[in-house]
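Thread: quick sanity check before group meeting

JM: Hey all, I'm pulling together slides for Thursday and realized we never actually wrote out the predicted structure for the chain we discussed last week. Dropping the sequence here so it's in one place. If anyone has concerns about the input, flag it before I start.
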Amino acid sequence: MNRSAKASIMRLRTSPQKLNLVTTLIRNMKVSDALVQLTFSSKRIAYDVKKCLQSAIANAENNMGLDIDNLVVESATVGRAMVMKRFKARARGRGAKIIKPFSNLYITVSEKEGA
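JM (edit): ok, ran it. Output follows.
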């Protein structure tokens, strides 16, 4: 039986494309290795991904009763959230569009025997 635990963060202030670069690093990785990867990553958003992963680990341990030594990041999914639209004044009465995207992050960890 494949038991798993989930955690999510909604409306992260970064684009889904940038967030997906970080989540591809930790997919199908042992949880301990994934935490090390996120700790030493140079990307700003890696801190929030690490918090979400730690939340998934805590959910697995407290709610599901899973052994944290055998946990593996089963999936790390990124989704689009809202987009704030702003504009910047330009020359000759024109305006330039500024798009400020938000993302959703979903992490699922599962227990694998001998992982």
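AS: nice. The longest strand covers residues 71-89. Strands lie at 4-12, 71-89, 95-111.
JM: adding both to the slides.
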